[in-house]
Amino acid sequence: MSTSNNSTEGYLDMELLRFTTAGSVDDGKSTLIGRLLYDSKSIFEDQYQAIEESSRRKGDENVNLALLTDGLRDEREQGITIDVAYRYFATPKRKFIIADTPGHIQYTRNMVTGASTANLAIILIDARKGVVEQTRRHTFIAALLGIPHIVYCINKMDLVDYEEGSFEEIKKELEGFSSKLDVKDVRFIPISALKGDNVVNKSENMPWYQGSTLLYLLETIHIGSDHNHIDCRFPVQNVIRPQSDKWHDYRGYAGRIAGGVFKPGDDVTVLPSGFTSKIKSIDTFDGPLDEAFAPQSVTITLEDEIDISRGDMIVRENNQPNVGQDINMMVCWMNEKKLMPNGKYAIKHTTNDARAMVKEIVYKVDITTLHRVEDDKEVGMNDIARIKIRTTKPLLFDRYDRNRITGSLILIDEATNETVGAGMIV
Ligand SMILES: Nc1nc2c(ncn2[C@@H]2O[C@H](COP(=O)(O)OP(=O)(O)OP(=O)(O)O)[C@@H](O)[C@H]2O)c(=O)[nH]1
Asked: What are the Tr-type G domain coordinates in residue numbering (predicted)?
């Protein structure tokens, strides 16, 4: 991780909306993103001409906007870094980062790569097919990952004659389902990604829909309260001690703020040692800051010389995380090899590495009914389960619903070094 971020990052993050798109195959994710980019004038004319030309060659009657994002996917599938999956665009009102990945992988991946900061999930539904298992699964995972806003886009309305009844039926079913989950904000928009209805421009084909277009919603949805600005959490990533003479007294702790607001002069406690000190400065590549908050990357210096290493956490004395080795969590399993009761795994939690043993598989979740399955505890690819683990050393953690960074961890198969599970601490 780079520690030399510029000081405006936090400011930019305040007006940055991160969202993911989900849906089953062919529901229209790529077309929708293409439409958003095109109608909001976020693509260059030459890009448009290229896909127009390509669509014409293939004999498509409409310009295939999906080609815009499919190009992006090709790059990614060639193994270029995961960041390529993210597409940036901006309107005068806000900046956006879209994470577009097929299937379920996007959510778990996002979380695993530490980018568990999506504010919003767009879940697409084909108006002809209605709610399918993937819709429920994506909703459940979005809720589990604590994504605060879910927008259901009922797509391909042009293929159901823009009928209000089709939309209402799907909406009703999903309202029932999502009300059983802990999602703060759920919206429904009838769209046609192909024809452009209600994506950026209001549809004339659906006068019965009085709500906002997708872009308007993305531009205006309130995200200020999505970050935890209360519990101060600074997991130390690196200790910085420059070798030059000029800097020989400098000792800084670099990392990314996981919660709360830090200011020079603040009394802080370093965990697990429990030593206390005051913040001397908060440094960035572009100079010192008067205050810093999640998710900024900064280097903190303290008044006192304390022995601090990677994996330690700087917090406020009166608001500390849990410390413990017995951890209850929900796990999304992401590997062909099944989760093993009594299995041992490496874990990564904030900037800390440890090992853990699975003590108990408490139950599995049936995504369709949301019921707990207690008689079949075999946890395989894509399963979600509640488990108990015991770590080899104490972790400094919060509940996931309190803090998405200090509340999450990943399980790694030590033999293959693959990430096999993403855990949310409960
Ligand atoms: N009629 C109609 N067709 C649409 C609409 N949106 C997408 N399609 C078509 O549905 C097909 C699938 O669209 P994509 O955008 O490629 O779907 P996707 O969800 O990205 O598909 P995968 O990436 O394969 O999961 C394409 O033929 C699109 O032209 C729509 O609103 N109306």
From this structure: 14-227
The CATH number assigned to the domain holding 272 equals 2.40.30.10
22 lines ligand 1 (CB under 6 A): no
Separation of alpha carbons 85 and 115, rounded Å = 12
Q: Which of 178, 177, 155, 180 is nearest to 166 (CA)?
A: 155
**Three-state DSSP class for residue 146:** coil
Give the residue numbers spanning the domain of 307. 233-316
Expressed in angstroms and rounded, the spacing between residue 124 Cα and the centre of ligand 1 is 10
* Residue of minimum CA distance from atom 8 in ligand 1: 28
- Backbone φ, ψ for residue 237 (5° rounding): -95, -45
What's the CATH number where 161 sits? 3.40.50.300
Round the average pLDDT of the chain to a whole number and report it: 85
Q: How far is the CA of 261 from the centre of ligand 1 (A)?
A: 43
Contact 265, 303 (CB under 8 A): no
Question: Is 135 found in the same domain as 190?
Answer: yes
Considering 316, 349, 377, which residue would you say is the last residue of a domain?
A: 316
Q: Which atom of ligand 1 is nearest to the CA of 24?
A: 25
| Whether residues 59 and 193 fall in one domain | yes
Of 187, 208, 226, which one is at a domain's C-terminal end?
A: 226
Q: How far does residue 359's CA lie from ligand 1's centre (Å)?
A: 44
State how far Cα 66 lies from the chain centre: 23
Q: Is 192 in the pocket of ligand 1 (CB under 6 A)?
A: yes
Is residue 29 within 6 Å of ligand 1 at its C-beta?
yes
* ipTM of the modeled complex: 0.96
Is 186 found in the same domain as 58?
A: yes
Q: Please tell me whether residues 75 and 143 are part of one structural domain.
A: yes
Give the span between the Cα atoms of 122 and 109, in whole angstroms: 16
Is there a contact between 154 and 214 (Cβ–Cβ < 8 Å)?
no
Number of structural domains, the chain? Answer: 3
- For atom 21 of ligand 1, the residue with the nearest CA is 26
- Arithmetic mean of pLDDT, 231-258: 88
pLDDT tens per residue across span 155-197: 999 999 999 999 999 999 999 998 888 788 999 999 999 999 9
**What is the pTM for the complete model shown?**
0.77
Which ligand 1 atom is at minimum distance from the Cα of 27? 19
Note the pLDDT tens digit of each residue in 72-127: 555 444 433 333 356 778 888 888 888 766 554 545 555 444 345 688 989 999 99
